[in-house]
Amino acid sequence: MKVLVEKGTKKKRQTIVILQVGSLMNFVQGKTVANQVDEILLERIRDETYSPGSRMPSESELSDELGVSRATVRTALAKLAANGLILRKQGDGTYVNARARDASAFLGNLWDLVELIEGNGFKPSIRFLSIERRPATEKEAFALALEPSEDLIALRRLFYADQQAVILADNVIPSSLLREPFESIDGSLHIRDIFQKYFHQKIAFAITDIRSAVIGEEACTYLGGESDRAILKLQVALYGKNNLPLALGTNIFDDSVLRLSLVQAWS
Amino acid sequence: MKVLVEKGTKKKRQTIVILQVGSLMNFVQGKTVANQVDEILLERIRDETYSPGSRMPSESELSDELGVSRATVRTALAKLAANGLILRKQGDGTYVNARARDASAFLGNLWDLVELIEGNGFKPSIRFLSIERRPATEKEAFALALEPSEDLIALRRLFYADQQAVILADNVIPSSLLREPFESIDGSLHIRDIFQKYFHQKIAFAITDIRSAVIGEEACTYLGGESDRAILKLQVALYGKNNLPLALGTNIFDDSVLRLSLVQAWS
DNA sequence: CAGTGGTCTAGACCACCTA
DNA sequence: AGGTGGTCTAGACCACTGC
Question: What's this model's pTM, rounded to 2 decimal places?
Answer without folding.
Answer: 0.81
